[in-house]
């Protein structure tokens, strides 16, 4: 964890609480607009996807990282570099499947969920589902089709927040229509 | 009723902390841009869009208020208008945007009106306003935060945002606030 920089120093940073509360305002708005946990999950994932698609460019430009040789390297970079760069946390990578195509990101203090308490009756809501979309969208841009889902959530009383990623397939370069 | 099997964590058990480590500005910018687009898709006009953003800002402001007073002021609330406005210009702004607001001004012709002026608003930095929506100002979001902070601290006011010498937040206070302030001063 980086030490807290003196307030007002770095113009490339933004107050974490402003971010957290802004995200909270968004989720609250979606709950009002859709009144259904599943629909809200979907909408959050969609917005996350849009973010991921744009975020990956920023990431590749800044992190100076080449193509990953395998899914293990991908996991490592997502957890150690990407999460650290954008959210200031480093999730733990664990629970690899035997085939090496599935792993979990374990997050202890999710910055999206500070100040948040889920009211009862929203067990289907994945509050931080934006993250699923971000992961999916950004990995898709580097030709990995990945399934992302929440399996544990501290907001629901679990000890840890766990996001499960499963590699589905490599996306082939699409050739633009009219070109050989 | 909470379920018997699992105890959900309560925020009251947690320490409010000294303020979070910061997050990358790109993270916030992309989230905010998605929010603007989402709101945009659900409204027809620019004022509606600004209202929607202000609503979201109010949500942020009302939640931020207690944390601010707790941390920066040691539980003490402001009762004097000018002190409150200065608190917003300095503390609130510093917490949110890492620097003080550029200017705080009182309107010459109206004792209920104050302005907070900012040359470059942080939330506007990443939004390129399309030509057909010339007067759109996404700092309406910040205006919402301000309004909620003022209302929550019992200084009922209306806060609107304008393009004037940069981004200007016009704070129009309720008559009662002015009357009360005079009363306090007179004592």
Q: What is the straight-line distance between the termini of chain A?
A: 49 Å
Uncertain residue ranges of chain A? 1-8
Rg from Cα of chain B: 18 Å
What is the CA-based Rg of chain A, rounded?
A: 17 Å
| Order of H and E elements of chain B | EHHHEEHEEH
Distance between the termini of chain B: 49 Å
Q: Can you give the mean pLDDT of chain B?
A: 86
Shape of chain A: globular
Largest sheet of chain B: 4 strands, antiparallel
Strand content of chain B: 5-15%
Mean pLDDT across the residues of chain A is 89
Helix content of chain A: 40-55%
Strand order of the largest sheet of chain B: 2-3-5-4
Q: Return the structural class of chain B.
A: alpha+beta
Task: Draw up the topology in text.
The complex is a heterodimer of chains A (180) and B (187).
Chain A: E1 13-14, H1 16-34, H2 37-63, H3 71-87, E2 92-94, E3 102-107, H4 130-141, E4 144-152, E5 161-170
Antiparallel strand pairs in A: 2-3, 3-5, 4-5
Chain B: E1 23-24, H1 25-41, H2 46-72, H3 81-97, E2 103-106, E3 113-118, H4 140-152, E4 157-163, E5 167-173, H5 175-186
Antiparallel strand pairs in B: 2-3, 3-5, 4-5
Helix pairs in contact in B: 2-4
Summarize this structure as a short list of keywords or feature phrases.
heterodimer, A: about 180 residues, alpha+beta, 4 helices, 5 strands, B: about 190 residues, 4-stranded antiparallel sheet
Please explain how this structure is put together.
The complex is a heterodimer of chains A (180) and B (187). Chain A contains four helices and five strands. Chain A has helices at 16-34, 37-63, 71-87, 130-141, and strands at residues 13-14, 92-94, 102-107, 144-152, 161-170. In chain A, helix 1 (16-34) packs antiparallel against helix 2 (37-63) and helix 2 (37-63) packs across helix 4. The longest helix of chain A has 27 residues, at 37-63. Mean pLDDT of chain A is 89; it is low at 1-8. Chain B is α+β, with helices and mostly antiparallel strands and 187 residues long. In chain B, 46% of the residues lie in helices and 14% in strands. Chain B has helices at 25-41, 46-72, 81-97, 140-152, 175-186; strands spanning 23-24, 103-106, 113-118, 157-163, 167-173. Chain B has a four-stranded antiparallel beta sheet with strand order 2-3-5-4. In chain B, a hairpin with a 6-residue loop joins strand 2 and strand 3. The longest helix of chain B is centred in the N-terminal third of the chain and has 27 residues, at 46-72. The model of chain B has no long low-confidence stretch (mean pLDDT 86). The chains are: A alpha+beta (180), B alpha+beta (187). The interface between A and B is large, with 51 and 43 residues.
